[in-house]
């Protein structure tokens, strides 16, 4: 402890240039972070060296998004120095918890996809897999959400303003990134046509490394994030012509590339700068991967034996064309050889079946910005369509493909003709990869049967499932110390590395003393949340209420509106005195809406309007409260999830690819009210469906309802409570003086087809909520189920998910000496 204290003081003085006697929490947080980083860097260097020494096959995880959240607590726990740090900082006059609050969330992602990437890096580090995360170091992460007059207002997330003590910026290792320009043809010595791309503009990519430690194993992997740097300061011409300001302007323009994360989530914006970001990220990453590979290899055909590249969604899919370009134009390989290398190296994960999220880029834009890549994509397509023809005519594809060859070719082509001629990035990713995976069993089945059915027929081996998981280090151990300590006192700490060990809790569910201790841990977490809400929102929570929580991005398919209709109905019953047996509850909502997503923003407004009305109504507000948690983010989730008793997972069946919040809640002992969707299905199967509150129509039932003509008006007319709730929303009951404010929401349901079947599931949802309320009155039974939920969550560890990727997709083994935990 004395060593750590000394290091902290030294950093306050020599790294931060401050007086250690001036007790600034900001300085002491930074100094502690630097002292922790010192303890990581040696192991990071050793880890990187060992990969070379053992000629390990490396995994590169390419993701435009990461959501690491805060690093301090997690890193202290991984290093096993949490207690030491707590005591050391307390000696220096600080509470560790307060210091940790000084850190800004690294919000370099939108939601589930980005958080999954961060959980995966944690698992690779813990399992000893030679992995690297690659991404972009956005200067501005996901926007900061404030609620003003009930509405979402976006503010810039200037997370780097106060510096980032965790990152190593490596200004000496810059990689050139080229755009635009032209392609020249030439003939090589064997008479083959060759191509050279001479680019117009160049910018530079600077690596910023953030260290990702494994759990208690000395294995530290790297998350390398690229930051755009201009090359104009090296361009003497500018200075010679005296155009200093012109040069500076161009520099600023170049560095725009990594300025800001696109805040759209499952809606593609298709903006030119976004494509620039994607290519900027991809080319720098591929250059770095090949630089490392070439240190030990000359023969490019050995690449797939040494390197596995996982594409996190299609955002980095242009990497396929980029690697082809390098192999063809720089290494001068033949097409077939290059293509084999690509396909064997790449694998692609799909995260959504929503059609509006499937990326396409206009051919005209690609031709201008990346002319050589567009040529390559055309060539990939031509060869692929010939192959389709061959397979379709062959026996093994059967009549199915053959009958309608032209249509089949149009459907699978990389190029879509309408509404504008564009490249379908998902098709590029599928064709250029040896593995395409979905993220939960149902999602993968839907990929095979619907979204990519043609590809499933053409390549029946390619599409596979890897159900998501979450890291128990952050989402149980670090976020929920009260519960973790209780668990550890009964079964030891092995569960942090091997989550299956939680099954040892099962017999304890029958032990009243253990149940009481379990409830005490939950209460402690509820009180912590209470204190936080008081500080932040100046609201007093009732900890004896059932804490019912719906936090995730705001999206119509996630059906926050269904939850809101339940709240309004409960409000009406209480007002009308029809709810004598109502179990008091506080309903929490939280989540960001894409700034351009009108309906999602209106939903936020409606939730806040209903909250204001309900909370102000003294007839009901001792029994029902509604809280909107502004600026939902990773660190907020870490506070809220441990305090949650009821987890809302109520998406339209078939629409939520997996969900990962669902896993975090159950792991922390919340019971789930949910639809038969995403990974909630597999959770119900693992836990026992009777221990969750499952309701609503299933995916196949919805398909047939749609086919037979779904008429939401029937539900409106047939259900008095539903009608009352919708009419209130449409009138000004929640928006005094602003008649019609929420009419778009209601009209969308009644006259817009209710694409997400809110009305169809309303009555069943109410029934399930009634079951929840009733069960909550029986605290012994509730607690028993809560324990069993957590005990059966072992499968949903990201360690299990990453082990499957490593074995079944990457063919990568953990580093020797690390498999069983302790590293060398
Ligand atoms: C999300 C899915 O919506 C969510 O269900 C899943 O758990 C998560 O990915 C991780 O796999 N998708 C996204 O965040 N974004 C896109 C473009 O799919």
Could you explain the architecture of this structure?
The chain contains 34 helices and 25 strands. The strands form six sheets. Strands 1, 4, 7, 8, 11, 12, 13, 14, 18 and 19 form a ten-stranded mixed sheet that branches. Strands 22-21-20-23-24-25 form a six-stranded parallel sheet, with helices on both faces. Strands 15-17-16 form a three-stranded antiparallel sheet. Mean pLDDT is 95; it is low at 819-824. With 824 residues, the chain is α/β, with parallel strands linked by helices. Helix 3 packs across helix 20, helix 29 (712-718) packs across helix 30 (720-730) and helix 30 packs across helix 31. N-(acetylcarbamoyl)-beta-D-glucopyranosylamine (AZC) binds next to helix 6. It is an enzyme of class 2 (transferase).
Assign the CATH superfamily of the largest domain. Glycogen Phosphorylase B
Q: Quick one: CATH class of the largest domain?
A: Alpha Beta
Shape: globular
Strand content: 15-25%
Amount of helix: 40-55%
What is the CATH third-level topology name of the largest domain?
Rossmann fold
- How many individual domains? 2
Give the class from helix and strand content and strand pairing: alpha/beta
CATH architecture of the largest domain: 3-Layer(aba) Sandwich
Question: What ligands can be seen in this structure?
Answer: N-(acetylcarbamoyl)-beta-D-glucopyranosylamine
What Rg do the Cα atoms give? 27 Å
Mean pLDDT, to the nearest integer, reads 95
The total count of helices amounts to: 34
Low-confidence stretches: 819-824
Biggest sheet layout = 10 strands, mixed
Q: How many β strands by DSSP?
A: 25
Termini separation (Å)? 23 Å
């Amino acid at each position: 402890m004395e060593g750590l204290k000394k290091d902290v003081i030294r950093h306050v003085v020599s790294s931060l240039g401050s007086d250690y006697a001036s007790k600034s929490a900001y300085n002491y947080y930074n100094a502690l972070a630097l002292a922790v980083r010192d303890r990581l860097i040696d192991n990071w260097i050793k880890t990187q060296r060992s990969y070379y020494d053992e000629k390990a096959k490396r995994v590169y995880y390419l993701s435009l998004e990461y959501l690491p959240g805060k690093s301090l607590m997690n890193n202290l726990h991984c290093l096993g120095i949490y207690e030491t740090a707590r005591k050391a900082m307390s000696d220096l006059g600080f509470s560790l918890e307060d210091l940790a609050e000084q850190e800004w969330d690294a919000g370099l992602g939108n939601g589930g996809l980005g958080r999954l990437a961060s959980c995966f890096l944690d698992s690779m580090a813990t399992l000893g897999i030679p992995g690297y995360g690659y991404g972009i170091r956005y200067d501005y992460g996901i926007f900061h959400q404030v609620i003003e007059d009930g509405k979402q207002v976006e503010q810039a997330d200037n997370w780097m303003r106060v510096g980032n003590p965790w990152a190593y910026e490596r200004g000496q290792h810059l990689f050139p990134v080229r755009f635009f320009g032209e392609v020249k043809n030439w003939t090589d010595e064997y008479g083959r046509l060759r191509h050279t791309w001479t680019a117009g503009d160049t910018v530079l990519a600077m690596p910023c490394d953030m260290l990702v430690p494994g759990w208690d194993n000395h294995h530290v992997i790297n998350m390398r994030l690229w930051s755009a740097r201009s090359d104009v300061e090296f361009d003497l011409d500018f200075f010679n012509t005296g155009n200093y300001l012109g040069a500076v302007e161009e520099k600023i323009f170049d560095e725009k590339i990594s300025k800001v994360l696109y805040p759209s989530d499952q809606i593609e914006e298709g903006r030119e700068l976004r494509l620039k970001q994607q290519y900027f990220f991809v080319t720098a990453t591929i250059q770095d991967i090949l630089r490392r590979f070439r240190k030990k290899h000359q023969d490019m055909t050995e690449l797939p034996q040494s390197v596995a590249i996982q594409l996190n969604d299609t955002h980095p899919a242009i990497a396929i064309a980029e690697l082809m370009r390098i192999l063809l134009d720089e290494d001068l390989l033949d097409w077939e050889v290059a293509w084999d290398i690509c396909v064997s190296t790449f694998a692609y994960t799909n995260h959504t079946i929503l059609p509006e999220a499937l990326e396409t880029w206009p051919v005209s834009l690609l031709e201008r910005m990346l002319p050589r890549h567009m040529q390559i994509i055309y060539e990939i397509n031509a060869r692929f369509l010939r192959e389709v023809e061959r397979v379709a005519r062959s026996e093994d594809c059967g009549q199915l493909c053959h009958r309608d060859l032209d249509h089949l070719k149009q459907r699978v082509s990389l190029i879509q003709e309408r509404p504008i001629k564009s490249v379908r990035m998902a098709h590029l990713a599928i064709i250029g990869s040896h593995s395409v995976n979905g993220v939960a069993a149902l999602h993968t089945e839907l990929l095979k049967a619907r979204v990519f059915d043609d590809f499933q027929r053409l390549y029946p081996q390619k599409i596979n499932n890897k159900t998501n998981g979450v890291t128990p280090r952050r989402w149980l151990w670090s976020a929920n110390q009260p519960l973790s300590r209780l668990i550890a006192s009964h079964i030891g700490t092995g569960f942090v590395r091997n989550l299956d060990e939680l099954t040892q809790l099962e017999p304890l569910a029958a032990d009243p003393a253990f149940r009481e201790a379990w409830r005490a841990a939950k209460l402690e977490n509820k009180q912590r949340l209470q204190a936080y809400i008081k500080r932040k929102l100046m609201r007093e929570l009732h900890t004896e209420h059932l804490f019912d929580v719906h936090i995730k991005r705001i999206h119509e398919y996630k059906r926050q509106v269904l939850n809101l209709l339940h709240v309004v109905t409960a409000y009406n019953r209480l007002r009308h005195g029809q709810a004598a047996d109502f179990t008091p509850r506080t309903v929490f909502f939280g989540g960001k809406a894409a700034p351009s997503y009108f309906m999602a923003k209106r939903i936020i407004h409606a939730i806040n309007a209903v909250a204001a009305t309900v909370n102000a109504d003294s007839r009901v507000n001792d029994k029902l409260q509604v809280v909107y948690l502004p600026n939902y983010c990773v660190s907020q989730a870490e506070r809220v999830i441990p305090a949650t008793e009821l987890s809302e997972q109520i998406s339209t069946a078939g629409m939520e690819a997996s969900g990962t919040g669902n896993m975090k809640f159950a792991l922390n002992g919340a019971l789930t009210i949910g639809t038969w969707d995403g990974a909630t299905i597999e959770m119900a199967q693992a836990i026992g469906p009777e221990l969750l509150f499952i309701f609503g129509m299933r995916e196949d039932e919805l398909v047939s309802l749609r086919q037979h003509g779904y008429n939401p008006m029937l539900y409106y007319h047939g259900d008095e409570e539903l009608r009352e709730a919708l009419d209130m929303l449409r009138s000004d009951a929640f928006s005094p003086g602003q008649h019609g404010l929420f009419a778009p929401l209601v009209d969308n349901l009644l006259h817009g087809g209710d694409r997400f079947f809110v009305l169809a599931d309303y009555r069943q949802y109410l029934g399930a909520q009634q079951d929840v309320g009733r069960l909550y009155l029986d605290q012994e039974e509730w607690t028993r189920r809560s324990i069993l939920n957590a005990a059966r969550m072992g499968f949903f560890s990201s360690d299990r998910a990453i082990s499957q990727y490593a074995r079944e997709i990457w063919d990568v083994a953990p580093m020797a000496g690390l498999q069983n935990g302790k590293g060398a």
